């Protein structure tokens, strides 16, 4: 399973192509994510976004989230809070798709699998100013980071338990060599800060 457990992931040989083919097959029922269609609604948008994030394609992930809102979930979006209905009528509103929308945004920020925390693994190219605080990675590691003007300003980690961390990020190069590996002491945050 690719998402949310990353049992199959881009760290494994050949999986990036396999995941991409799976997404293409699923989405082939539609001409494009921003076109109204009946075959794909709701979760077809918010489910495709984290799959694209899983292969590092933040622009495509963003396009599905944007299309979800722009097409009003294939014409079914009812409320500003993203509640929508699956069938004709007003009696079948759903909650899981709005929740997966929020989760899909978080999937672009920190993700972790196979003992590695990935910071900003799938940012859309036009997101130049991004900040998040204390989002949890595997093992309960709280991750915080900020980009300003597309440059990493700071990166922080905290944990209740002593552990070794392995960090990778497409924007890490300004602060440290990637992958970054270090020991994290319990209750003692570790910060990397750009000094210019």
Instruction: Characterize the biggest β-sheet.
Output: 4 strands, mixed
Question: Strand arrangement, largest sheet?
Answer: 3-4-8-9
The global form is globular
Number of helices: 5
Taken as a percent bin, the fraction of beta residues is: 25-35%
Number of strands: 10
Helix-strand topology string: HHHHEEHEEEEEEEE
Write down the domain tally.
Answer: 2
Mean of residue pLDDT? 81
Q: What's the alpha carbon Rg, rounded to whole Å?
A: 18 Å
Structural class: alpha+beta
Residue windows where pLDDT falls under 50 for at least 5 positions: none
Helix content: 25-40%
N→C terminal distance: 42 Å
InterPro entries: 6-hairpin_glycosidase_sf, Glyco_hydro_b
GO biological process, one term: carbohydrate metabolic process
GO molecular function: alpha-L-fucosidase activity
Q: Which features characterize this protein?
A:
four-stranded mixed sheet, 5 helices, 196 residues, 10 strands, 27% helix, alpha+beta, alpha-L-fucosidase activity, Immunoglobulin-like
């Amino acid at each position: 399973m690719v998402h949310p457990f990353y049992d199959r992931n881009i760290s494994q040989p050949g999986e990036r192509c396999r995941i991409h083919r799976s997404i293409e097959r699923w989405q082939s029922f539609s001409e494009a994510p921003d076109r109204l269609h009946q075959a794909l609604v709701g979760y077809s948008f918010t489910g495709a976004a984290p799959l694209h994030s899983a292969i590092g394609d933040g622009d495509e992930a963003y396009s599905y989230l944007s299309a979800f809102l722009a097409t009003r979930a294939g014409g079914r979006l009812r409320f500003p809070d993203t509640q929508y209905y699956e069938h004709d009528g007003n009696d079948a509103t759903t909650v899981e798709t709005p929740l997966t929308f929020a989760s899909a945004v978080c999937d672009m920020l920190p993700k972790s699998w196979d003992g590695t925390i990935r910071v900003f693994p799938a940012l859309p190219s036009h997101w130049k100013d991004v900040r998040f605080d204390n989002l949890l990675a595997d093992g309960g590691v709280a991750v915080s980071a900020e980009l300003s003007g597309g440059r990493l300003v700071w990166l922080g980690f905290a944990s209740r338990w002593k552990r070794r961390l392995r960090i990778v990020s497409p924007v890490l190069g300004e602060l440290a060599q990637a992958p970054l590996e270090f020991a994290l002491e319990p209750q003692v945050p570790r910060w990397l800060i750009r000094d210019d």
